[in-house]
């Protein structure tokens, strides 16, 4: 739907007909989402945008609390890119002011506020990585300190008067903490208000967020009404499960794929997901059409090996964050490993102390976090030296150069003296 040409005006409150282009834009918007509120309002926003040629203002606010993004973060960024491709204005809002409060969403303890230095450093990394998904030339970058700092004490009090404590405490995480007697700091109650005020300042038409952000997004809608604006619509995206297929993707849980990880690592991690979880990743991460993914599902039902389809997904994502050649090389590397071969890009490690116990050797080569983990891997048959499986936990390794392997993906070429 091209929203850049027509310059007709539309009287407020006018119900507009819904064109095929608007229907198509709605289908693209709704793909893979959790919820769209209020859909009828959003359809009219799309129709008005088509008629007037004025792009919608699409807002995504992110507090730069962690500088490294994984594929779970890109679920909402992918949706922003799709809306960007429809011709709308994407606003990448960095919550440098709200970061100093700390988002209490889903937490049972107060989040420690970040320092200004941490916020600035994280924000730089955040946008650089987000630009691997978004088109930076068509992205408006804003910082909410632009309008939050000038509010001052008087403005904060006036803003606080627009919402009741009872409504703030409707938040599930606040309710749980209150019932449990867990402390809630006053500044945490301000967070939803400040996030909502961002929507007022930016005159947002649509705000995106994870399912855990729904309350905050609704506050923005209510505040816009108080300030005489047309309320934004809300689009929540599901939280992507990690490689284990159970917990949401998280670096702390170790079930993540980082978007700046090496191509071979990304590819191998994506190939490790289950065949059933593969479809979830297609829905939330792939840029392929719904009809094409549907065709893949029918082919698997008719007997095609799901591994073939998973390879296509892994290659698509690796190519997005690296290159076409990197995706091809990653596939070759993965196939080589699957045949028991040794990848080309393994680290080289020099150690001393020969003869060295196998547990210490694996730990010092950074292939295992501890000697106990190393010995457990030996016990499970997951350790090889030059392709030969190690079964003796008491093995002392003599001086020399050899390739150590732990599991399917960890290798090191070790020179032991």
UniProtKB/TrEMBL annotation:
InterPro entries: aa-tRNA-synth_I_CS, aa-tRNA-synth_Ic, Rossmann-like_a/b/a_fold, S4_RNA-bd, S4_RNA-bd_sf, Tyr-tRNA-ligase, Tyr-tRNA-ligase_bac-type, Tyr-tRNA-ligase_bac_2. GO terms for cellular component: cytosol. Residues 356-417 form the RNA-binding S4 domain. A motif ('KMSKS' region) lies at residues 248-252. Its main location: cytoplasm. It is found in: Cytoplasm. Its EC number is 6.1.1.1. A motif ('HIGH' region) lies at residues 64-73. It comes from the Bacteria. GO terms for biological process: tyrosyl-tRNA aminoacylation. SUPFAM superfamilies: Alpha-L RNA-binding motif, Nucleotidylyl transferase. Pfam families: S4, tRNA-synt_1b. Keywords: Aminoacyl-tRNA synthetase, ATP-binding, Cytoplasm, Ligase, Nucleotide-binding, Protein biosynthesis, RNA-binding. One of its GO terms (molecular function) is tyrosine-tRNA ligase activity. ATP binds at residue 251. Belongs to the class-I aminoacyl-tRNA synthetase family. TyrS type 2 subfamily. Homodimer. This is Tyrosine--tRNA ligase. It comes from Noviherbaspirillum autotrophicum. The gene is tyrS.
């Amino acid at each position: 739907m091209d929203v850049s040409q027509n310059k007709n005006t539309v009287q407020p409150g006018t119900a507009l007909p819904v064109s095929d282009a608007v229907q198509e834009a709605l289908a693209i918007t709704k793909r893979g989402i959790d919820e769209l509120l209020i859909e009828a309002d959003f359809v009219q926003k799309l129709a008005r945008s088509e008629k007037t040629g004025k792009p919608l203002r699409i807002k995504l606010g992110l507090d730069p609390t962690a500088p490294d993004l994984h594929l779970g973060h890109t679920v909402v960024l992918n949706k922003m890119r799709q809306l960007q491709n429809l011709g709308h204005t994407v606003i990448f809002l960095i919550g440098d002011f709200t970061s100093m409060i700390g988002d209490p969403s889903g937490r049972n303890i107060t989040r420690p506020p970040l320092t200004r230095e941490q916020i600035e450093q994280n924000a730089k990394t955040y946008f650089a990585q987000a630009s691997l998904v978004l088109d930076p030339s068509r992205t408006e970058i804003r910082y909410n300190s632009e309008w939050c700092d000038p509010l001052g004490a008087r403005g904060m009090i006036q803003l606080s008067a627009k919402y009741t404590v009872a409504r703030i405490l409707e938040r599930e995480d606040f309710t749980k903490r209150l019932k449990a007697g867990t402390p809630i700091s006053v500044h945490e109650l301000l967070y939803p208000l400040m996030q909502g005020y961002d929507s007022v300042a930016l005159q947002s038409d649509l705000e995106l967020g994870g399912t855990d952000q729904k309350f905050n997004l609704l506050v923005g809608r209510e505040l816009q009404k108080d300030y005489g604006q047309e309320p934004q619509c809300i689009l929540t995206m599901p939280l992507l499960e990690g490689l284990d297929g159970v917990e949401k993707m998280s670096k702390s849980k170790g079930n993540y794929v980082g978007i700046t990880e090496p191509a071979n690592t990304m590819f191998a991690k994506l190939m490790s997901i289950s065949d059933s979880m593969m479809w979830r990743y297609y829905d939330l991460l792939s840029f392929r059409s719904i009809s094409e993914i549907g065709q893949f599902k029918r082919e698997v039902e008719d007997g095609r090996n799901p591994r073939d389809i998973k390879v296509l997904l892994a290659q698509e994502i690796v190519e997005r964050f690296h290159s076409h050649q990197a995706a091809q090389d990653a596939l070759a590397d993965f196939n080589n490993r699957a045949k028991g071969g040794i990848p080309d890009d393994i680290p080289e490690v020099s150690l001393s102390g020969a003869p060295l116990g196998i547990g210490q050797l694996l730990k010092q080569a950074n292939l295992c976090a501890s000697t106990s983990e190393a010995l457990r891997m030996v016990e499970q048959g997951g350790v090889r030296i030059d392709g030969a499986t190690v079964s003796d936990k008491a093995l002392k390794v003599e001086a020399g150069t050899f390739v150590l392997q732990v599991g399917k993906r960890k290798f090191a070429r070790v020179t032991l003296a």
